[in-house]
Design brief:
single chain; alpha/beta; five-stranded mixed sheet; 13 helices; 10 strands; 18% strand; globular
Length: 339
Amino acid sequence: MSEGSYLGLDIGGTGIKGLRLDPDGRIGARASRPTPQGAGAQAVLDEVAAVLKELSGASRIASVGAGTPGAVDSRGVVVAEAVNIPGWKGTDLRAACEAATGAPAVVRNDANLAAYAEWSVRQIGASSSGPGLPASRNLLFVGLGTGIGGGYIEDGHILGGTDDRAVELGHVVIRPKGRPCPCGRSGCVEAYAAGPAIASLARDLSPGHESGLARLLRAGTAPVTAREVYEAFALGDSLALAVHVEVAEALAHAIGLALALLAPDTVVLGGGVLAGAGALVGDVARRVPEYVYGAAVRDCRFEAALLGPEAGLLGACLNGASLVLDRPGLLGLAGALAP
C-alpha cells in the first residue's frame, strides 16, 4: 500500500466538501467551505485549495480525487458550463489540485465517483457488507437528489464516455412533450423523479385528493419537499401514493433502457431522496420488466446504496487512490469503509 493519505473533494453549487482517508482506511479529517457565489472560477479554486490545505494538515498526501458537476475531459479540465457554478467551463481542476498538494490528482463527474464507491465496497464480500451480499462486477448507480445522476462501473473501470458524460439517465426523455425539465427539454426522467420534481408532482396531482398531504399543499402554510411526500407515503397517504407510482414508473422506464444497453449485474439507487424513500428500490425493480427483455432483469439485482450521501466524496478518495495503489491495496482501503 502506498504511504500517505488520500484526499477526496465533492464540489457543488453551494458547498465544497473534503475528506481525508488515512492509509488504514479510517477517516482522518473532514473540511468544508461554501462555494463562492458569482465570484468566478478562481474564487472557487481558492476555496478548493483552502479545503485541501486544511485536510492535509501535517500528513503526507498520496493522491487527490475530485468530483465536479458537468463534463470533464481526460486532462481534468471542465469542458462545459455547470448550471450551479457560473464560469466553471475551462477550469483546469486537476492542475489546481496537484498544485495545492504536490500529489497526483484525478477529476471525474460526481455521479461516476458515487458509482465507483458503491462498486468498491461491494468487492470485499459478505463478511463486511452484510450477509449474503455478493460482489458486483458491473454496477449501475442512479443518484436521486436535486437532479438525477448516473454512473456505470465495469470490473472496476468507470464508463465515462466522451468528457465523462455517459449514463446521464436524468436526461433520458421518457415522455415526449411531458413535464418540463430544467435542462430545457420536456419529459426527462429528472422532471418526474428528482427531489424538486417529486414536490411539483404532488402539487399538480393534489386536486381530487382529500388526503393529509393534499390539505397541507392547499393550505400553503409549510413548504412541501420530497421528504414530506415520502413521510406521507409511509402513512398511506393517497396523494403521496399517486406521486410514488409516477416516480417509480419513470425510474423503471429509464433503468430498463440502461439494462438493455449495459447489462449490469447490480443496480444501486442512492442519493438524498432515497433516504426517505426506501420503498422505491423494490417498486422500481418490480416495474422494470415492463421495459426490457427478461434476461436483463433476471440476471440483475436491485439494491439501496450502502454509503448514503457521502458516496461521491468517498468515491473521490478511492478513485484518487487508484492512481497509486494496486487493486488489492485499493480494495483493502474500500473494505475499511463498508458498513
